[in-house]
Structure formats: C-alpha cells, structure tokens
Design a protein that fits this description.
627 residues; seven-stranded mixed sheet; alpha/beta
Amino acid sequence: MRYVIAAPSYTQKSAGVRVLYELQKWLVRYGKDAMVLNFKSPYQVEADDIVVYPEIVSGNPLGARRVVRYILNHPGRIGGDKEYDRNEILIAYDGELGQYSHGVVLATPCIEEFFSNRGYERNIDCLFVGKGTNTGHSAARGCIEITYQWPANRRELAELLNRTRYFYSYDQRTALRSEAAWCGCQVRDIIGDEVIEGQSGPFDMELFKRQLEQFIQMTWYPEIDLNEEASRSIDIGLSARCRAGASGASSRTASAALRTPDAAMSTSSHTVPSATVVVPVTNGWEATFRSLLALSERSSGVRREVIVVDNGCTDDTRLALPQLENVRVIRNESDEGFARACNQAAAQAQGDVLVFLDRDAEVSPGWLERLMNHFTDPLVASAGPGERLSGAFLAVRAADYREANGLDEKDPAAAEGLLGGFLRRGRRVVLAEDVPMQVPPPAPPPEPVPPASHPPVSIVVPVRDAGATLPECLQAIEGNLRPGDEVVIADGGSEDDTLRCAFEFAARHHRIVKVVDHVGGVAGALRQGLGVASREMTLIVSPRVVMPSGFVDGTHALLSGQPTAGALAVEVPRMGICVLGRLDDLRAIATSNVNALFKQDGVDLGRALQQIGKQLAYVPAPVGRAA
C-alpha cells in the first residue's frame, strides 16, 4: 500500500508542482511509502494504491480504485474538471479552496529558506501577471516585470525581491506573493481597477504537521479497498468530530474518530512541555547526520525544534547543515566550547525544556515523550541519564536554566555546578533512565572488497537540480568503488534536493567523498570538481547515468588497449558521455573548452586532445542507462 502522487515533470517555476513533490517527501518522513509519477506516463497501479491527483488532471487516467484529489487552484480554472466523482477524497491547499473539499486543508510548504529579508537597500518595484489579467494599472507603471522565464533561478529571484519595495501582482494565487512577503516586500494585489494590500503571514509549521496527520488519517485505510467505503468512513468521522466539538467532548474523543492505528502524534501531546533539542558539533559529519536522522524519525509526540551549533567545523558538516530541513543552525568560526554553544542555543530556544544531546547518541522511538513526561512535575528542573548513558543528554527546564544564567563558560565542571544550584534552591534533579537511547557500538569491520583491477580513480559528478536522478546514479557508483577511489560531487547551484542527496551519500562514505558547492552553473562546478580531485585518473559521470557493475574496470581496460589515446569517451544515449582520462589533461581541457566534456558526439573533445598531442578513444555504444 502506498501513495502514488501524479504530477507534471518537476520544475522550479511552478509552485503547484513543487507542492506535489514536497508532499511525497513529507509522507515518507511520516513513515508512508510514497512516490511521484508523471501523470502522462503509462503505469499500472496496484489495487490498494492511493493515487493523489492535482485538480489539473481530468478524470482518473491511471484507473485507480482509490483517488485523492488535491485541489491547488479553483477547479477547471487552469485545466482539469470542474466537478469530481463523488467517491473521491477532496483535499484543499488553503482555506479559500476549502469550499471544494471535504473540509480538510493541507498547505504543504514549498518555499526555500533563502526567501528571507536580508536587509538590503530597496530601490525597485516589481510586477507579476502570471495567471491574472493585466489591466495596465497605473500603479504598476515603471515596475520590473517578473515572468515564468525570468529570473532564471529561484536564488536570483530571492535576491531581486530583497531589493524590491512594492511587489504588485495581478495573480492572487501565485506563491510569489508569499515569497515576496518573506523577503520583506510590501505586497499589493491588483484586482480590476483596485490596488489592495496583500495579506501573507508567516508559515506555521506546526499547523501544517497537524494538517498532514489529518490528511493521512483520512486517506490511509489499509482495511478499505474502495473509495466509496473510504468516503463513508470519512463522512462518519467528520460527523463524529463535529458532534464532539458541539458537545464539548475532549480532544482525545474527537481525534479518535479520525485516527488510524499508526497516527504520528500522541493524543496526549498537549499535556507535555515542548522541547528544544540542542546538538553542539565540532566535525564528525557522519555521526552528526546519523543522530539528526534519528531525531527526525523518532521524536513524534512532542512539539519540538532542533538547533545545531556548528562549533568551528572544518569538514562536510559546515556545508551540509544549511541543507537540512527543520534544523536551525548557529555557526561559530572557531570552537567556542561546549558551555558557550549551549548558552548560544538557549538564547534562541523557544521550547519549554532544553535538551542538550551528544552528537554520538542515537535516540529511539518514544524517547522525547518519556523525557518530557518527567517535566510534568513543576518541581523538576533537570533530568539526566544514569551511568548507562552518562553524558548522552541533559534536559533542563528553560526557565530554570535562564534564571541560573546558563552554564558557566569558564568552569570545566559547569554542568555539575548548574545542577548543584538547582538543588540548593529546592528544585528537583531526577534520573531519566526510562528514556530509550543508545550510544552506538564501534562499527563492525568492513566487508572485504574485491581487489581493484585499475589504478585509483577520482569519479567527478557535475550536477545541478539533479535530485530526481542523483540517488540512483550514486548507488551505481557505490557498487563500482574500489580501494583508493574517491568521489567528487560538484554542484552548480541546485535549488532542489541535489545537495541534500549529495551530503547523505557523503555521510555514508565520509572518507572518500567530497562535495563542492559552486553557484556559477554546472560548467563552473565541473572545473571546481576537477580542481579538488586528487587521483591521477579521473572519470566524469553525468548524474543521469546509471553505470553498470564493472563499468570503471571496463573503461580502464578499454583505455589501456588504446596506447595513443589520452582519454576515453563512452556514449550513453540521450544523456551525453562519460569521460575517463588523466586528471591534468582533463583540467587543461576544462580551462580552455569545458563544454567539450559534455557534448555527446565527442568531436570537440577530440580536437581539444589533439591540441595537447593526444587522441580520443570513443565508444558509441549504450553502456549504462539513463536514471
């Protein structure tokens, strides 16, 4: 059983498309099997699949037995049907569209963190028409027009909006209005002859999570095969919820009418304090990533936030942390010490309880709810582990921590001093030995790797917005790695999940994987990637290519059989070429004509090699496949 989300091909230009792809990620985070499928692609859905169509898709082209209609715009306005089958489950994106739904709103976030007010001088005004009607209103004269084609990418759009005073929009349903407001613009809607001040408040993540839980509760019915049965259950559940609200019934009774056995949040979560989990780190990205992943997956049931203090990291941690969702990062240029890091985080924390977590500790399901239950006693100021997990965590009520002025940054035994102060003031310090957590044992010895049949190689993957194909590409590279090899992932300014995927791969292979971030496009990223590569032989691979097992060995063997060749180019149909050659030669070519390393016919690459006295060996065969 899974969610199949029918969507157009991914594009940053459409907020509706971004919403559909983000929904898939959130469902996976909540433990559901979910995939995105281009609705124009032939695909055979299973009988128990839950197919989610946006309102622009007419009918039920996949022939699904269970259909959810996600209404992102007024039905029929930009495509699709105006009315839907009575057995479809109807979900609205916002309150304005709620009239078309079964009363459930799901405002999936799709705005990146770089849409924020950076305090720049504002000296321009901007205009967007979009799906609205341009009346040529005088208020918008002289404005710079934003279109679907310009700016070229979303980071450039955020830069433009940060220099904009007034943002005029003829389209009242565009996400640009919210993006402009987040960047500090004054938003003005043009409706006919009127100019109206636009309303766009801050995004409420906790509200969205409650909406997502309700969405899952209404759509995930393992025991129901037909939408007709699901619709009846939804009607019963909604009626029960309304009756409970009218009679003053408890929130537990009301939510039980819609709850499935695996609902993510505890019905009693409102009775426990909220938490701010603080993770101070100094290098060690692999352990940090593992800890943060466990935090994300195993901390349901409690309202929480996560703050990571980058205490002078010099490894992949510094680049990777800003790519993580729902994690606030405090960055120090040098190691300020544990106590200073904790005090910095406490100054920004919003939770009732501060939980200082060791980077190496891996939490288990239910850990945070059990820990917070100790703080339902108002006399408890702090809770810590027993000897079994000594040092793994320390939880302190935020009000008590601030009253004590935090940790003494000059005292090596600052934590003991803090707890002693609580006891002297009559506060309680308790052991929380019931908190399920572990400090992972040493990793088992690695499985033996077959000996390499080629010299060590640097595999360079130039990428930009390759989040859809990069995971499969890297998985294939992983199967080709031999002792001494390294992987360099060179990003050219991606705005999708590319960097997150790259850093997750780097966390699993932190000793042999480098990630470089270059905002000047994929060509500049390739130059930079070649610049940090360190092996004598280098293989350039497109992120859309899935190389077969033994590919690296095979290319080496082919190149070795061509004594006059300085490089080997292997064609992958429609995807370009994979190039193997000496690192110094490839760097020279990238400096003079980097595009020669991308063109599929290999003509320019052959000419570039001739200029340094070498030849090209070209394999025009479908080795590998497209991701």
